[in-house]
Design goal:
By secondary structure, this protein is mainly beta. It has 1 helix and 25 strands. The protein has one helix at residues 2-32, and strands spanning 36-37, 42-48, 53-58, 64-68, 75-80, 86-93, 96-102, 105-110, 114-121, 124-132, 134-139, 144-148, 153-159, 164-172, 175-180, 186-190, 195-198, 206-209, 215-221, 224-229, 235-241, 246-253, 256-263, 266-271, 276-281. The strands form 6 sheets. It has a 5-stranded antiparallel sheet, with no helix packed on it. Strands 2-25-24-23 form a 4-stranded antiparallel sheet, with no helix packed on it. This is Strictosidine synthase conserved region domain-containing protein.
Amino acid sequence: MPLLLKPYWRATLAVFGAALTLYLIHASWRQFYPVTAAAGWEVQVYRDEIPMVSALALDGQGGLYISQEIASGKGKILKLTPDGDLTEILSGLSKPDGQVIFRGGLVTGQEGGKLPVLWLRNGQTETLFEGNGIEGIATDGQVLYAIEDARPGRLLRFTPDSGELSVLRDGLDDGEGVSLCADGRLFYTEKRQGWVKQWQAKGPDIVVADGLNAPGFVQCTTDGLWITEDATHMARVLLLDTSGQLQVILTHLRSAQTIIPLAAGSYLLAEQGRQRILKLARPASF
């Protein structure tokens, strides 16, 4: 009987070995295949070696705030100066994420549980309100909008002058990104649902893009609505342009996070899976 089994086991091992080889090749391809930009766009590394890079915000004076989305009180906010120095300005956070410049200071959320949204200004930190896994934050300069990466999660509006916290939507399924356009339109993502919605003051919210792979952050600009995918492999950056067409701008990303406008025709993108910040731009803007 043992002699009869030998050819069977040899064939089984050969098939297993071939399958394992194909898997390793595929995994390596997904891991190391370079990011690819659509026609009319170019991409390059802006800054690398930043573990768990996530939220980005420009200070208006050439500096860049960067969050390191690390849990259990080990998260940090860094600042990249115009001359290239990277310094720590705030620590002791739990998965800091969702940053905006607000009234001369920096507002940041914390995704690591029921924790405060913080306002850093003039070297002091102030608690604005508390949320459960706050990830995305947006502002029009008067009020703040925030979304909870929770099940269920909420879409919130906070008015600092009065201290009023309003719930715009509840029962969300892992909300991640929120963005306010100059014309007042408010967009948000639900990662598990794979869609982006436009909030409506009356009636049901409108799905503007669906069938996405873990949509994370959104950013409204003059080019349209930018959407990043927070997938470990094969993530994309998409643009819902002003004509309503959904374009794929970048592919082969790993855990894309915040995208923000740097200047006319150029953007900064946090790619957490490769610990770096990318610059995306039209060729004339490099």
